[in-house]
Structure formats: structure tokens, C-alpha cells
Amino acid sequence: MYLAIICLYLAASVLGQRPGNVIAENAVSMPMQTCTKGGCTLENTKVVLDANWRWIHTNSGYTNCYNGNQWDPKYCPDGKKCVQNCVLEGADYQKTYGISSPSSGSLKLNFVTNTPNGKTVGSRVYLLAPNNNYRTFNLLNREFSFDVDVSNLPCGLNGALYFSQMDADGGMSKHSGNKAGAKYGTGYCDAQCPQDIKFINGEANVNNWNRNSGFGNYGSCCPEMDIWEANSDSTAYTPHPCRTLGQSRCSGNSQCGAGNSRYNNVCDRDGCDFNPYRLGNQNFFGPGKQVDTRRPFTVVTQFVTSNGQDNGQLKEIRRLYVQNGKVVQNVKTNIKGVSATNVISDAYCKNVKSAFGDRNYFGEVGGMGRMGQALKSMVLVLSVWDDHVAGMKWLDSRYPDNGLPSKAGVMRGRCSPSSGDPNTLESQSPGSSVTYSNIKQFGTMGSTYKS
């Protein structure tokens, strides 16, 4: 996922991997529940801001190490010297980043937050355990549920809740240059192998840094399970397996899968998505539809194994919703040439990729079996973002741009292709937001929601 930052604390979007002492780090409380058929128990978890959003300055003063979308060569002539010269600060979550907890167990992420020093656009946070490591999840033979309110999230924006196979300590034990760890939101990775991560494997991503795009030579790769990508008009859930497990660093556009090298990547950047609108169901999700996005609802995702046991292979990923006390089963596919189904499986992915004329890279990197191996240890990520690369058209509009609307799979939602323009969104819809609440972690299937 590509996350754009217009201006951060002290008018700079900067970060580092050693903690500073200017701003106190006070992660936002967001307790979750672990459930079985016998009931649920509370965990005192918090959310911590990603390092990419934080202010970094020299360890001997307040000079920015990164400013105007470029590294200061005096302090960051190379990746290793940069971590020696620069520190990563704590965060004022609400005032600088628009991150708040309106009530116990809820998290509100504002799209644009104005500060005396500029504005912050979007945010990304991780669930943090009491020991200051990321709270990790084994999703096999479990279900995961949460409540969400997307009523204030228009076309072109994405309120995302997903899992990435990050290191629990943020990579601190593996990389000597990382002294901040999970407490300061380090170690991010996903299946896009993002090259906009400014510190990877304990080094600054200085080499070949492109000031215009905000991309460096390195990318940070790992398996990703997109539980929820949505706005008020469209939604999708998508597994992204990789040939490798855990976080790894790629080097160069070709190895990281940028541009025309998409299928050189160790990870499946496309994924195998289930988007009701794209699958021929235009009246299932949205304002006033079967899942009515004008009001909050519960999202339940179940990870079904081949033998119904924890040691089984991932067979299916199922989805259902609960709204106004009523369970709404996921809608079935309505595409010519695709057998009607409402679950993600290897057969579904093969059939739908064929129907859409897409390469089944999902199957090539190992499909559901490979995804299931990654699901044994995942970190929860929550975010809100706009898309400076594709205007979010892959989620809620026509994509690719030259695709015929009549061709199966091209229409992802009813939004205008121009609705995702970041400049328009940031100027005309700055007050947009998404609210997550009631995060519950599984146990027995059917234990995290009420019908």
C-alpha cells in the first residue's frame, strides 16, 4: 500500500530508528478481546504509530535529517551513518496525526490533521502488546471480527485493516541499527514491497532516493492478509502470499516488483481479491444497500482449515457481516464462467483470474497453502490513506484506466475515476475519517459475534 504524507511535525516527513527525548511516546489505548464459546477476556493492547510518520532530527539538536522529501546529506550520506546521526521521536497522536480513542476499545483515524506547522495526511498504526512488542496473531482455524464505521469515508479513500508478517519486535533484535523497535513503529513490510519506507533493516533507505516519488532503492517485503479495504462505496478482502515467509528486503525496482517488473517480486502484489461489486453484485455494499454503510456494522472473517484443526492447511477464507442484529452472509459471485461461491479458495482464485484475464500469480507463489503458513504469526495494521499512484481506482472505480467497462473485472465500484485524486480529496474532504472498534480475536468459530 502506498501512503502519502504531505507534511508532518515541524513541516517534515521524517523518521529514524533510535528514540529521541523531545516528545513523549504515549501509544493510544485500544483494548481487544480474545474469545471462546465460553466468553471473552480483555487484553490491554494499544496502537502505536508507524515510524514513517514520525519526526526525526539530529541526535545533538533539532535539525531535520529528512526535509522537503529528501535526505540531508550532511547527516545521512549513507544508510548506516544516518541511523548513527539521527533519532526517532515520540508522537502527539491526536494533535499531530488525528488519531484518537472516542470510547474504550475504539479508534478513530482522521484523514487530514492541521497543525501549526502544516498538515498530516493519513496514518498507519499497529496493535501493541503490553510488553512493547507487536501483538501477534495465529489466524489458522480462527475467526477475527471488528466493528467499523465508514460513513464518513468517501470515494477515493481507503480505511484499511489488515495483517502483515512483521517481526514482533519491529526488527530490533535482527538489526543492530534499529534501537527503537516496535514501541516506535519500526519494521513495516507488506506484499507490495514498498520502497517508500525510509528505514529498512536498521539502515536509512538513502541510496537512489527519488525526491519526486519518495522512493528509495530498497523495499520491505512480507506476506499480507488484507482483511478490510473499504470506503463507503466499495470493499474488498484479499490474501497476498509470498514465496518467502517473514520480512525481507528487496533491492532495486526489478527485484521489488515496481512498474513492469510486477511478477518478478517474491510476493503476489495483485492478491486474490473478493470485491462484491467487481464480482457482479452492485447492490450488496454501500449507502442504503444490503450492508448499509451509512451505519456501523461488524465484519467477521474466518480462516477455515482442511481438517478443522489448528494444524490443518488453509482451505477457505470466509466473510460475513452483522448489522442491526442481523447476520448478512457474504454475497456469491455473479460472473460468467465462475462457479457461484462466496469464499476465497484456490479454485475461486484460479477461476476468477481466468474470467478476468489476469495472471494467477497467487497460485504461482503457493496460493492458499502458502498464505496459511504466513497466517501463523501476523501483526495487525490499521490505516487511512489516499492513493498517489492509482487514485484508489483498483478498489472503487474503473481499473485499469483503459479497461472497457463491459469487460469482466474492470469495474471495481461506482465511483468516478477522478474521485480519488489526492489533491482534490485533501482540499475538499479533509474531515473524512474511519472508526474501528470492538476488535476481538477468535478462539472458536462463531465466538466473536452475536446473531
Quick description:
The protein has helices spanning 79-85, 93-97, 252-256, 346-356, 361-364, 367-374, 393-396, 422-428; strands at 28-29, 32-36, 39-43, 46-49, 56-58, 66-67, 70-71, 86-88, 99-100, 106-110, 112-115, 118-121, 123-128, 136-137, 143-149, 157-164, 199-200, 203-204, 218-221, 224-230, 235-240, 248-251, 285-286, 291-292, 297-305, 314-323, 326-329, 343-344, 378-386, 433-441. The chain is mainly beta.
Write the SSE topology.
Elements lengths: L27 E2 L2 E5 L2 E5 L2 E4 L6 E3 L7 E2 L2 E2 L7 H7 E3 L4 H5 L1 E2 L5 E5 L1 E4 L2 E4 L1 E6 L7 E2 L5 E7 L7 E8 L34 E2 L2 E2 L13 E4 L2 E7 L4 E6 L7 E4 H5 L28 E2 L4 E2 L4 E9 L8 E10 L2 E4 L13 E2 L1 H11 L4 H4 L2 H8 L3 E9 L6 H4 L25 H7 L4 E9 L10
Parallel strand pairs: 2-30, 23-24
Antiparallel strand pairs: 1-4, 2-3, 4-13, 5-8, 6-7, 9-10, 10-30, 11-12, 13-29, 14-29, 15-25, 15-30, 16-20, 16-29, 17-18, 19-22, 20-21, 25-26, 26-27, 26-28
Organism: Thyridium curvatum
Keywords: Carbohydrate metabolism, Cellulose degradation, Glycoprotein, Glycosidase, Hydrolase, Polysaccharide degradation, Signal
Catalytic activity: Hydrolysis of (1->4)-beta-D-glucosidic linkages in cellulose and cellotetraose, releasing cellobiose from the non-reducing ends of the chains; Endohydrolysis of (1->4)-beta-D-glucosidic linkages in cellulose, lichenin and cereal beta-D-glucans
